[in-house]
Amino acid sequence: MLDGIKNKNQYKTCNMNEEVELIIEETKDRMDKALDHLEHELARLRAGRATPVLLDGITIDYYGVNSPLAQVSNINTPDPKTILIQPWEKNIIGSIEKAILAANIGLTPINNGEVIRINIPPLTEERRHQLVKQVRNEGETAKISIRNARKWANDEFKRMLKDGLPEDLEKNATETVQELTGTYTAKVDKIMAAKEKEVMTV
């Protein structure tokens, strides 16, 4: 009888161990997504350098389908100050030009009938400081997402504690998640510092 109870408890602990591991994995996934989102948002900030990411989110009507620019043209950066858009079909070049202007991203397309060229203007000192603020705001948003992931995991561990998770396992799991939080927060700081340096480099 005692052996049966012991085996049952061992089985329960084993299952809970697996559940703890799954929660930690899910927490890492959530923190990874926060980093990915941060990197994507920062890539879209115009830091005075040409990058196709600046045109992300711009779509045109292509035979009745709302299509991203990258799906209807080749987008290149022949030099750090120029974006070159080569439409796959000449008849859509006007639509691409209109879409860029309508996107209101502060870039002026130059259409020569064959390709569209966009010259990236240098940033003013004021604009650089605005961008640094935006970088910090995006970084803070990422840190909030990371802390939310930590809170979610800790709430799950507390729930499991009530369901019989041994206290030492709950403590270890909470410490693991705290370490992850520290690691990912440091990664956010590193990404922000690199972007700030890029923005402030004249």
Major β-sheet annotation: 4 strands, antiparallel
Q: What is the C-alpha radius of gyration, as a whole number of Å? A: 25 Å
Tell me the number of helical segments per DSSP (H or I, 4 or more residues long): 4
Run of helices and strands: HEEEEHEEHH
Mean pLDDT: 86
Strand content: 5-15%
> What's the count of strands?
6
What general form does the structure show?
A: elongated
Q: Any low-confidence stretches, pLDDT <50, length ≥5?
A: 1-8
Strand order of the largest sheet: 3-4-6-5
Class per helix and strand makeup: alpha+beta
Amount of helix: 55-70%
* Span between termini: 77 Å
Tell me what you see in this structure:
With 202 residues, the protein is α+β, with helices and mostly antiparallel strands. 61% of the residues lie in helices and 14% in strands. The protein is built from 4 helices and 6 strands, in the order αββββαββαα. The chain has helices at residues 2-43, 93-102, 125-162, 167-200; strands at 59-62, 65-68, 73-79, 82-87, 109-111, 116-119. A 4-stranded antiparallel β-sheet has the order 3-4-6-5, covered by helices on one side. Strands 1-2 form a two-stranded antiparallel sheet. β5 (109-111) and β6 (116-119) form a beta hairpin. α1 (2-43) runs parallel beside α4 (167-200) and α3 packs antiparallel against α4. The protein is elongated. The termini are far apart.
Search tags:
single chain; 202 residues; alpha+beta; four-stranded antiparallel β-sheet; two-stranded antiparallel sheet; 4 helices; 6 strands; elongated; disordered N terminus
